[in-house]
């Protein structure tokens, strides 16, 4: 029996398992499909909240902590797995921001670089943006990763750790609770025991808890995205080289020249089907920012399910009323953004270490049983 059992093989679950194993503990990770194939794969890879000044302080605190760990994580994964997750800090251009003063006040409080830029500066950075842009905001240190590569690197790292057992294509049917304590999970292939159980199942985390009268209010919100193949541009440039955000939609460049556009926000329960309406909407958004994309091939169109908590703050910590059961879920659009900090916070709590971030705002006990049921 291993010390810890992690349910869910997304970035949150894999990072949690890595940190526990690297601290010397035996870990089993159970994933109903293949690791890294749900929301972690489907996201865009921007490692900052899209409009960070619009989030609560607890989310900003986690985002700030995570941003300082991504470069180290990228280097460590490249060294241990040989996989480059394509972490870069080329910045983000914001167009048509209607609360710029709020943004500058937030940036000053956080010590975060943010500046207003004029048309000449914008077109020097991204010459093929649509005509008529007069000004915008520029966040020079914003980073991004190629999230499918991050998923592959984390899985490769887990494969190499001798004290990790990976159980893929193993669906958890229910939690094993005995005398008020979580001691494992029941699966179609049999029971798996562990000293502690950690739910990192994203939008599915609340499903397992519901059987035990714990109504964790994490709901799925569908997001659809598309990927364009772009041609080489004059001077050895790419059609797009920095993240651009306008009216809630974003374009993300990849190192190979591809451009990703996202994303929709849809309340469709656990439906992951793509739609013609979303495809047209995403295409229009992309072309309105970068007109040359109208002549580029759409290589892929997909959907994923974000796990949304009602206040936007993830649930991180011990589940009230069930000893040995813990959760890290509800990151909404910021799973990749917050992963290095939120997993470090939970692992610190699990191992009795002093957390760098105050855990109080994230504790599942912040909602009473009655409030959870009402939600």
Question: How is this structure best described in words?
Answer:
This protein has 375 residues and is of the alpha/beta class. 30% of the residues lie in helices and 26% in strands. The strands form two sheets. Strands 1, 2, 6, 7, 8, 9, 15 and 16 form an eight-stranded mixed β-sheet that branches. α1 (11-22) runs parallel beside α10, α3 (57-67) packs across α10 (335-350) and α4 (70-81) packs across α7. The chain is globular.
Shape: globular
Query: Biggest β-sheet, characterized?
Result: 8 strands, mixed
How many strand units?
16
Please report the number of helical segments. 11
Secondary-structure element order, as H and E? Answer: EHEHHHEHEHEHEEEEHEEEEHEEEHH
Radius of gyration: 21 Å
Derived from helix and strand composition plus strand pairing, the structural class reads alpha/beta
Uncertain segments are 368-375
DSSP strand content: 25-35%
What is the CA-CA span between the terminal residues?
A: 36 Å
The whole-number mean of residue pLDDT values reads 93
State the helicity in percent bands: 25-40%
EC number: 1.4.3.19
Protein name: Glycine oxidase ThiO
Pfam family, one: DAO
Domain FAD dependent oxidoreductase: 3-349
Which secondary structure elements does this structure contain, and how are they paired or packed?
Elements: E1 2-7, H1 11-22, E2 27-31, H2 39-42, H3 57-67, H4 70-81, E3 92-95, H5 100-110, E4 115-118, H6 119-125, E5 135-139, H7 147-160, E6 164-168, E7 172-178, E8 181-187, E9 190-199, H8 205-210, E10 219-229, E11 243-246, E12 249-253, E13 259-262, H9 276-289, E14 297-308, E15 315-318, E16 325-329, H10 335-350, H11 369-374
Parallel strand pairs: 1-2, 1-9, 2-6, 3-11, 9-16
Antiparallel strand pairs: 3-5, 4-5, 7-8, 8-9, 10-13, 10-14, 11-12, 12-13, 15-16
């Amino acid at each position: 029996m291993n010390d810890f059992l992690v349910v869910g093989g997304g970035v949150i679950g894999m990072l949690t398992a890595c940190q526990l194993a690297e601290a010397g503990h035996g870990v089993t990770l159970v994933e109903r499909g293949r690791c890294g194939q749900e929301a972690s794969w489907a996201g865009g890879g921007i490692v900052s909240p899209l409009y960070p000044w619009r989030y609560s302080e607890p989310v900003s605190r986690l985002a700030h902590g995570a941003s300082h760990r991504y470069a180290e994580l990228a280097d460590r994964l490249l060294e241990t797995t040989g996989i480059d997750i394509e972490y870069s800090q080329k910045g983000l251009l914001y167009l048509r921001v209607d609360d710029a003063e709020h943004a500058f006040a937030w940036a000053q409080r956080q010590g975060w670089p943010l500046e207003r830029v004029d048309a000449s500066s914008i077109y020097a950075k991204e010459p093929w943006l649509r005509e008529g842009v007069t000004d915008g905001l520029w966040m020079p240190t914003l980073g991004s990763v190629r999230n499918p590569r991050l998923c592959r690197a984390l899985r490769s790292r887990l494969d190499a750790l001798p004290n990790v057992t990976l159980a893929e294509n193993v669906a958890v049917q229910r939690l094993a609770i005995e005398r008020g304590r979580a001691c494992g999970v029941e699966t179609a292939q049999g029971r798996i025991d562990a000293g502690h159980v950690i739910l990192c199942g994203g939008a599915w985390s609340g499903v397992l808890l519901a059987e035990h009268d714990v109504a964790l209010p994490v709901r799925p919100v569908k997001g659809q995205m598309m990927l364009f193949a772009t041609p080489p541009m004059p001077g050895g440039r790419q059609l797009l080289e920095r993240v651009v955000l306008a009216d809630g939609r974003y374009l993300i460049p990849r190192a190979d020249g591809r451009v990703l556009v996202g994303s929709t926000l849809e309340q469709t329960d656990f439906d992951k089907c793509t739609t013609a309406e979303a495809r047209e909407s995403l295409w229009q958004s992309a072309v309105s920012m970068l007109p040359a994309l109208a002549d580029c091939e759409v290589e892929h169109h997909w959907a994923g399910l974000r796990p949304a908590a009602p206040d936007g703050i993830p649930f991180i910590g011990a589940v009230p009323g069930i000893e040995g059961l813990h959760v890290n879920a509800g990151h909404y659009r910021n799973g990749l953004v917050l992963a290095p900090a939120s997993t470090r916070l939970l692992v610190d709590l699990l191992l009795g270490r002093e957390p760098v971030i105050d855990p109080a705002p994230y504790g599942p006990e912040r909602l009473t049983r009655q409030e959870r049921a009402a939600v």
